[in-house]
Structure formats: structure tokens, C-alpha cells
Amino acid sequence: MCGIGGYFLTPKGQAPAGFLEEIRRGLHHRGPDGSAVHEIGRAGFVHTRLSIIDIEGGAQPFIHRLPSTQSGSADAMLVANGEIYNYEALRAQTIFEYATRSDCEVALPLWLQGGADFARSLRGMYALALYNGAEERGCLVRDAFGIKPLYYLETGEGLFFASEPAALATACTARTAPNLISAAMVLDRQYDAHRAAEQTGIWGQIKKLQPGEIITIEHGRIIARCYDRPLDAPTGQHAATPETLDQLLEDSVYHHQLSDVPFGMFLSGGVDSSALLAMMARLNDTAVTAYSLRFDSHTVADETEKARLIARKTGAEFIEITYDREMFWQQAGLAALACDEPAADYAILPTLCLAERASRDVKVVLSGEGGDEFFAGYGRYRAGRRLLGAKPLMRAGPALKAGILHQDIAAGLQERQHALSIAFPPPSFADKLLRPSSALRHLQRVDSQTWLPDNLLVKLDRCLMRYGVEGRTPFIDKVMSPYGYHLRASAKIRGRQGKYLLKQWLETQLPEAEPFQRKRGFSVPVGDWIAEKSDIIAPLLARQPLIESLVSASDIHQVLASAGSNTAMLSWRLLFMGLWHQIHYCGVSADQPIDAILAAQ
If DSSP states are collapsed to H, E and C, what string results for 253-286? Predict the structure, then answer.
């Protein structure tokens, strides 16, 4: 796991002065174990390394000497962020003089020999940049599910890229005013929903590779795009049985544990994390380290007792962290710093806290993201299959419903929502009636293209990488995900139970997890905590430039002062976006209390 960045210049293009060094500084937290830069012709790459596999020899960029050409000899190079889990099998299939034992080096010969289609053979999570100096051809690649991020900026000088947009904006001196409609989308939906290729987001002209996108570059210009979409291929060879699921889950967890450094896992006590721990306990001779968090509040559900019981039954080492209101007021700014692509999911607060604690012991953490999306755990999947009364998939959120947005902003946001509704229509009545499995997959596909890569995986990547920890997701995998996605509807939903097959398996493996017990849900008491200090926070937010551009000042105090469930998320999103703008655009230090960040001029 690492940070990557670099450029592909046009024939007369020039990189900004100190570009690679600025990227190296901006991505140091992603790779604190080492860094290097390398330039070949009109391309330059930088890599900051978190050492996971081949600790001694796996430094990047990877450089390969190409055969001599008419213009002399040239090199090819690669920088990679992530892990390729099937690297040993792929190395055995290639004839290549490998310089390291790194899992990522295999991508270079695969690309040189097979072109852009090479990414379809990779199993893992990755963002890659490759360059062939002899042909002056480059490639940018993002894994099929968008687990690892990659952003780029096209200018008259060429194409520039980095793992995080804030680092790219700083290195390119491209910190233009944030896109207000994207910011309003965060207030209304929690994240800036799916953007098509070449569409910009909140960071102005900085764009994001889509999940599975493969971009080919020549002479500093994009010449082709293609996509790796494993969900498109049905997997009818796998039976919908607990025995088959057992084999696939064991295979996925085994591959996601490949590491030369210690690893642990995040345990909530829910179905997904309990299933991971049950399998990890089976595969490991030593105790698995499980990290869990509870809130010092009586207003939200506390699952730590259940998590502690599950840890004890599996022989795991249980490490519990308590998160309280004082930590919130002191550390919320760090969450906004970490999420430079704003994902105002209040789960970033406990995730960041868990990441900091885990970083003292391990470099790799397995997490349960993807279980709900690919095995159909959300209640919205059951609701969306109703023949009558199903709500639109891209309906208005709390900001639009509350009427707090300025009129022009609300109109622009509604236009964006309408475009999303066209891009992601609900399943047809015929599918709901005659093809229930197809209707369910339709709903899951929307989440796999929006909610998952633009919200949950942003949260996981940024929070863990802020403390130099690699997050791995066994449910989001080229084998596991298509299996869950293509299961018939009755294997995923029965009555009011989602994730039916997964729960059926877990009940046989770890009955203490009580998988068929009604889910209590996960929430963070931020609404209560914000309401307690609304008299202080509201006037500070009202004068914050971004918030002032989006929301009427007279509405802010009313929203923040209400601790009800309908306004808690909106109050947090307002606070988050105010902090985000102060930190990323106004240069305010994130390592101070909320009120100090907002009060800074």
C-alpha cells in the first residue's frame, strides 16, 4: 500500500517546478517507509512506500530495461498502490527477469506484453501508472471495484496524476474554488455521487478514474479508455450453498491475508466482520488481533459486548477503544483532513480512531466492507423490489428536503439528481414481477458504482492511510463479489432477512454471532454532541465561506440545535464541509478543536 503520483508530458510540455517532490511530501502519510522518484523522457513517477510484501527488496518505481531501438535504449517503469493477490500465479505465466519479490512488479511485463487488457487478469486492489519509454506510451489503471483511488488533471502541459486530489492540487497549483453543486451533493447525499468518465467533481478540473477504468496515454494525451467489469460475467458454476460459500470465503480471506508484516481486523460484532473473524481464526495458528470501538453515549447502540463474546469464542485478542464527545471536538478536524475527497459519512470518526490504534500494532487490517452490497444486506434492497410504493433510487436528501440551500444551488443540485435518476433508474415493473433476481442485481449494481466506491471505500482508504495502515476487503474481490452479486434473489433475501446465505453459513460456523437476530444498526452520536454546542458552532459555520455559499445563515442554528435523527446527519455534514474547506482551501491546521478551526481567518 502506497502513494503514487507523476506526469506524462506533451512534446513541449513542462511539469510545474518541484512537482514530484511536492507530491512526495503530500503523500508521505500513505507511504512512511520510504520514497523515490524516477524520470524517463517526458514521464516522471514518484512513490511513497508502505512496506507490506518483500520488505527489503520491493522499493518502487520498478524500472525495466527495454530492447534497443533505433533511437537507442529505453526503459519502462511502474508505480503501484495496492496489492495483487494472484501475483505468484501471474509471475509463473510470464517470461520476465524480475528484480524483486513484490506482488505489484508483475503488472509491468503483463502490460508490456498484452497492452491495456492486462488489468483484467489482476485480482486485488490497485492503482497503477506505467510508462514505456521506447513508445512514449503510458497507462493509468484503477481496480475493478474502486478500492484504491487515482486522480488526474489534464492541462496544456500534459497529464498529471496522484493518489489523492489535495496533493495533486498543491503540486499543480490548481486549487480553484470548489464546485458548489458537488459540495451541495455532499450535504444532501453524504458524498459526491457517481461521476462519469471525464466529469469533474468538487476539486474543479481534477478528475477521478472510475472503478475498473484503464486509460492509455500517448505524448501526454489520453487516446483510449477501456474498463474491467467483472460483475458483467455471470458465475453460474458456483452453487448457492453454505459449502460453496465456505470455500470461496476461505480462498478470499487467505489471499487477503498475504503479508510479510502483522495484520489484524476491525470487529463490529455484525455479520460481515464476524464472518471474517471466524474464517481468519480458522486460517491462523496464532490469535487474530480484533479492534472494536464503543461510544461513550447512551443514545446509540453498543455492540461491544457482542463483539467481545465473538472474539473470545474465536480466540482473538480483543482491543476495545472508547470514543467520547471530547475526542470528537478535538479530532473531527483530522477526519476532514483525511477525507480530501469529501465523504461526510460519520463513520469516518470511529474508523479514523480505530486506524490510529491499529497502527501501533499492525500494518494491515481486514474489514467487512462489501458484504452488504454484494450479498444484499440493506433494507433498501427489499424496499426497492416492491411492486408498488418503491421510492426513487436517487431521491432528494435532507438538505433539499429541509429547504436550507440557496435557490440557485438547490436548482443545480436537483438538475444533478435528475441526471443521476436517468443514469440509475429503478428496476422495471416487469423485472420486479417476473425476474426478481435481475431486479435485485439492478439495485446492487447502483450501489457498487456509487455508494461503495464514492463513500465507503473513500472512508476506508483515507482513514487507514492517514496512519499508514493498509485496509483489505475480502468481500470486495473478483471471485467473492461476482459470486454474491449473481446469486439468485432467494439466496440473498428471504422475508425481512438480507444476506441470507451468508447468515446461514455464519450460524453454522459461529452461532454466538446470532446472525439472524434483528440488526440494531450502527450510528454515531454526533447529532447530540453538535446540538450541545450549537450556540458556539452555528455562528462560526454561518461565516465560513463555503457554507455561506451554500446555505442560508438563518437556517444553520436551527439544524445544529436539533438532535433528532432527521437532522443529525445534516448537522454533521454541514460541520464536516465547513471543516473541510477551512483545512483544504484556507490552510487551517486540522490538529486543533473544532471551534478553533472554524474561527480561524
Answer: HHHHCCCCCCEEEECCCCHHHHHHHHHHHHHCCC
What's the pLDDT tens digit per position in 384-393? 999 888 888 8
- As a whole-number percent, the residues of the chain with pLDDT over 90 amount to 86
Q: How far apart are CA 80 and CA 488, in angstroms?
A: 36
Residues 144-165 as b/e (b if ≥16 CB within 10 A, e otherwise) read bbbbbbbbbbbbebbbbbbbbb
Residue type, 507: E
CB contact at 8 A, 267 and 313 = no
Q: Which domains are delineated in the chain?
A: 2-228 (3.60.20.10), 242-390+426-513 (3.40.50.620), 526-599 (no CATH)
Give the pairing of strands 263-266 and 34-40: unpaired
Return all residues near 67 (Cβ < 8 A) that are at least 6 apart.
73, 134
CA distances to 8, 210, 218 from 222, in Å: 10, 15, 6
Task: Render pLDDT for 286-342 as a digit per residue (tens, 0 to 9).
Answer: 999 999 999 987 777 777 899 999 999 999 999 999 999 999 999 999 999 999 999
Distance CA 490, CA 379 (A): 15
To 5 degrees, how large is the angle CA 87–CA 5–CA 190? 90
HEC string of 272-330? HHHHHHHHHHHHCCCCCEEEEEEECCCCCCCCHHHHHHHHHHHCCEEEEEEECHHHHHH
d(CA 531, CA 564): 9
Sign of the alpha-carbon dihedral angle for 269, 271, 276, 280: positive
DSSP 590: S
d(CA 321, CA 327): 11
Helix (H) or strand (E) holding 7: strand 2-9
Report CA-CA distances (Å) from 479 to 108, 446, 485: 23, 19, 10
| C-alpha to C-alpha distance for 402 and 559, rounded to whole angstroms | 9
Find the helix or strand (DSSP H, E) in which 584 lies: helix 565-584
| 533: helix, strand or coil | coil
For 11, left (φ over 0), alpha (ψ -120 to 50), or beta?
alpha
**What's 463's DSSP letter?**
H
Three-state DSSP class for residue 235: coil
User: Cβ neighbours of residue 134 under 8 Å, at least 6 residues apart?
Assistant: 66, 67, 69, 71, 74, 76
DSSP state of 543: T
Q: What is the pLDDT of residues 188-203, one digit of tens each?
A: 999 998 665 556 789 9
Sheet of 364-366: strand order equals 317-323, 289-295, 263-266, 364-366, 470-472
Nearest CA to 344 out of 46, 577, 10 is that of: 577
pTM confidence score:
0.96
The full DSSP string for 167-230 is HHHHHTT--PPPPHHHHHHHHHHSB-----TT---TTTT-EEPPTTEEEEEETTEEEEEEE--G
pLDDT score of 522: 62
List the beta bridge partners of residue 48: 3, 35
- Paired strand residues for 63: 77
pLDDT of residue 453: 96
